[in-house]
Specification:
The protein is of the alpha+beta class. It is 24% helix and 26% strand. Strands 1, 2, 3, 4, 5, 6, 9, 15 and 16 form a 9-stranded mixed beta sheet that branches. A 7-stranded mixed beta sheet has the order 8-10-11-12-13-7-14. α1 crosses α2. The longest helix has 20 residues. The chain is globular, with a radius of gyration of 21 Å.
Amino acid sequence: MVEPVVDLVSLSLFPATRAQVVESWRRTWPQWGGALSLTEYLAREAEMESMDHAKGGKLIIWVLAPRDDPTSLDFMCSCEAYKRAGLVAYPTSSTSEPNSVHEVTCYAIASVFTPPSKRGHGYASHMMRLLHWVIASRANLPKFPEAWGAPPEQVAEASEGLFSGLYSDVGEEFYRLAGPGSKEGGWEMRGAVSTIWDVGTEEGHDDGWTWLTQEQLNGLWDRDAGRIKKELANMLTSDTSYEVERPVAFATYLPTNGVCGFHIPRSTYALDVSMTGGFWGVQSSSDPDTYASWSVDLRPPPPTLIITRLCASEETFPGLIVKIKQAARRSGIRKVEVWKLGEGLRDIAERTGGRTFIRNEHLPQIVWYGPEATGNIEWAYNEKFGWC
């Protein structure tokens, strides 16, 4: 059945009603449900929204719907916006002074979806253009285009974001062209770099290392936020590993408040997947600043142990990788992947059997709502924990 094309000016962005939330899940299940039945998929999504990273108004599902029927189940498309805590560091004019670090509100965007019957009419592009207007401070946005009609209404739980990020599986251009006022000024790609290892057969021993459960990791991520803040204060204003030549600001999500933790139950829900011993991380006993956490990526098969957060020096990294590969091997997983290693660690990774490449999926893209252009912003700690 061919659906009539709806004029974009007659549409706007609205927080989904409960019925629209469930309808959005039903629509995405055939494409993203994997091995889950529809019942399992709906149950997983409901459970995910009650977790720390989403509850308390941190998650809003937005729908592009008719202005005169905003609660319609026949909405055009939908997306998720997660409100998060982040940090932004501004380099100072003096090299002898630390960078100025600030806690900020930011957003992670996910699950952008248009049903097949409604594709090809620009609905998702328009939804993403409107999304800026409900998650950012409007004082930092250009004039709202008159051709779009009235701007969407703001809601108390959203707005005031200084930046937002997403992970594209449809290439870079779609989101880059979805700006708040035109076909420019959208999300720009940063560092879609992965390193993978085959786990091999090197077993090693556990002396000097502590295996971590998810509960233990929750406390570690809280301490990690303090570490990240200190590192941002001392981050160099220029480095060959940066995506931006001389950043005017460094922006990052924080792994706290369930942001890193939700990866574990999401990847294993209703599936026969587990890590030996129930361990989802490892930490050096002699150097607590050396640690890693992970989840399992089941698609595409075979399963991959995906590192969500990694902290190590060039001296401690080789030993840490041995333990991560050991955890994967003991759980029957044959590959390990990490996102966006620093250049020093990347060189060591290659000497330990790692292969680094540019991904063509899960492309990290960021847009900045501050006074400077997005092209001048460096995405720091661009690791898997930020994905949603």
